[in-house]
Specification:
- The radius of gyration is 23 Å and the shape is globular.
- Among the domains are: 170 residues, FAD/NAD(P)-binding domain (3-Layer(bba) Sandwich), CATH 3.50.50.60; 175 residues, Flavocytochrome C3, Chain A, domain 1, CATH 3.90.700.10.
- The chain contains 15 helices and 22 strands.
- Strands 1, 2, 7, 8, 9, 21 and 22 form a seven-stranded mixed sheet that branches.
- Bound molecules: flavin-adenine dinucleotide.
């Protein structure tokens, strides 16, 4: 039996896009229904670093950082290879500051700047070598969420840390015991949980109770207008009619292997997001006649799967950010050759995995391995093993570079030559092949004791034992989907708005297209366009 209810605005998906859209609509008085397919709220946003990248944000004023609309737009354009719709980039830059201020006004969110965190391409026109655009949400106490305290997806590793506490955000990765205890007692959470928690609280305060385990399966169409949605809840079909609009915020299609192989520009075997992101919103939008954009793209990351480690019932893929940027490590392909600046930002590095070899007609850099030496392992600890402890047994090791290559299937002559060449570069302080360490960004993420110098990432690879870890092309989420206008309205193939249909977040074509400006490069636009789409849907225009 099919039951039917009616709302002003229906929002599908409870990540940052859906929560922000729902809040924007609810704040102007709309009766909002928020539906989430998973049993947990928050999507990938909840397990993320929680960092939004917002040019011209108000915190820059207090910190004395100068920024400008022209710089921000020039910078984004420099990263888009001509594919970005300038009207969307302008809408992002023009609404970023106001969105963050609005979030601080209507929720418990309080942001701080991540000190000195460089943009991802700081030497490009308009880039910021000393940061100022990446924001860290303050700790949020889940104890105050009452019955919703355990309703949010969480990542075990970073639950109580802010990004500023982690090595990625310039911290040590450790808290003293008293501080950790304080945070545990009050269930104070950082990163993605600190971003979505206050949004959920604000929604509950506004009378919007998210419905979990509610999978949208189809849009309802009256003539050309989207008038509601069909949901599967507890094995039954429910229809929710939307008087004003439906907002798609169902995340990317990275867990849908067919869509991944049909659309992405190269191999992607390691999604790091929540597994419920299977492209449902994309398929619904296609059936409603949406035009698509950016479909080959995703927010790329190099990733590792640790045997036996699972998240949400699937093998967990971890981002590899730290180990590859530390001194004494290189990334190589099966020929034993380096193929990238290992300290480059993760999204740009993804391009190197998609390089075709025209002779073999295959991907030259898949598979790939991170090779690191005994000093790296001992000094830094790797892949979950703390510094000074024996490295985990699943990691292949050998007393010689040649032996290591043979064990994992890398060309031994190639690897020996490459390691010798790398050590030569380190000795003269210049990576002659890929310029590792030249950018301010490269000098941020490696060994924090040498931050801002090349020594943070350049280091000889010469002390046994030598280690190899397979690295896979992964993603934080795909970034192609229905094309939208600057108000978040979904456009059809003639670029006319589809009445009643809105989209924000990774379900939609990213407003910045390929451009990933800096830490927070996905969540920044997502918060801005989530709000715009929710406001437009509530207005029904
Ligand atoms: C480990 C990690 C760290 C990251 N760190 C950062 C960071 O610090 N800064 C940054 O900018 N980006 C970061 N990202 C990327 C960022 O998290 C995503 O780009 C962002 O969260 C996407 O938000 P969204 O709202 O579009 O989708 P999501 O947050 O993934 O939410 C989509 C939701 O829709 C639900 N859904 C799917 N299908 C349906 C359906 N049919 N019906 C109803 N609901 C449905 C899903 O279950 C999910 O809950 C990170 C990602 C990961 C995985």
């Amino acid at each position: 039996m099919e039951s039917s209810i009616e709302k002003d605005v229906v929002v599908l998906g409870s990540g940052a896009a859906g929560l922000t859209a729902a809040l924007a609509a609810a704040r102007v008085g709309a009766d909002v229904g928020l539906y989430e397919k998973s049993d947990l709220l928050g999507g990938s946003s909840a397990i993320s670093g929680g960092v939004p990248w917002i040019p011209l944000n108000h915190l820059q004023d207090e910190a004395g950082i100068t920024d400008s609309r022209e710089d921000a737009l020039a910078y984004l354009a420099s990263l888009s290879l001509g594919r970005m719709d300038p009207t969307l980039a302008e809408a992002f830059v023009d609404n970023g500051r106001a969105t963050i201020q609005w979030l601080e006004e209507v929720t418990d969110l309080r942001f701080t700047l991540i000190p000195d965190y460089p943009d991802y391409h700081p030497e490009n026109p308009g880039g910021k070598p000393h940061g100022g655009r990446s924001l860290d949400p303050g700790l949020f106490s889940y104890a105050g969420l009452g019955p919703w305290q355990d309703a949010v997806a969480r990542s075990r590793r970073s639950a109580h840390l802010r990004i500023t506490d982690t090595t990625l955000g310039g911290g040590t990765g450790f808290l003293d015991e008293a501080e950790m205890q304080r945070r545990m007692d009050a269930d104070l959470r950082g990163c993605g949980n600190a971003l979505v928690g206050p949004l959920i609280k604000a929604l509950l305060d506004a009378g919007v109770e998210p419905v979990r385990g509610a999978e949208a399966t189809d849009l309802l169409l009256d003539d050309d207008r989207v008038s509601g949605v069909r949901l599967r809840v507890d094995g039954s079909d429910t229809v929710v009619r939307a008087r004003r609009g439906v907002v798609l915020a169902t995340g990317g299609f990275e867990w849908n292997t067919r869509l991944v192989s049909d659309f992405l520009r190269g191999p992607m075997t390691a999604p790091t997001s929540v597994p419920t992101n299977t492209g449902d919103g994309l398929l619904m939008a296609m059936r409603a006649g949406a035009g698509l954009a950016n479909m080959g793209q995703a927010w790329w990351v190099p990733a590792v799967k640790i045997p036996g480690d699972e998240a949400f019932g699937r093998p967990r893929s971890h981002l590899v950010n730290r180990e590859r940027t530390l001194p004494g490590s290189i990334l190589v392909n099966r020929a034993g050759r380096r193929f990238t600046n290992e300290a480059a930002n993760y999204n740009a590095l993804g391009g190197a995995f998609h390089q075709m070899d025209p002779v073999s007609f295959g991907y030259a850099n898949v598979p790939a391995w991170l090779v690191f030496d005994g000093r790296h392992a001992e000094r830094y600890g790797s892949f979950g093993t703390p510094a000074g402890e024996p490295i985990a047994p699943w990691i292949t090791r050998s007393d010689s570079v040649r032996g290591l290559a043979t064990m994992v299937g890398i060309d031994p002559d190639g690897l020996e030559e490459t390691v010798a060449r790398w050590n030569g570069f380190v000795d003269v302080g210049q990576d002659g092949d890929f310029h590792r360490g030249d950018s301010a960004y490269d000098r941020w993420s490696g060994d924090g004791t040498h931050r801002f110098t090349k020594a943070s990432t350049l280091g000889r690879l010469d002390r046994a034992p030598f280690h190899a870890v397979p690295i896979e092309p992964g993603t934080l989420g795909t970034s192609g989907g229905p094309r939208t206008d600057p108000r978040g309205r979904v456009l059809d193939t003639r670029l006319d708005p589809i009445p009643g249909l809105y989209a924000a977040g990774n379900v939609a074509a990213a407003p910045t297209a390929m451009a990933y400006g800096g830490a927070g490069g996905t969540l920044g636009p997502i918060l801005v366009f989530g709000r715009l789409a929710g406001s437009a849907a509530a207005a029904g225009d």
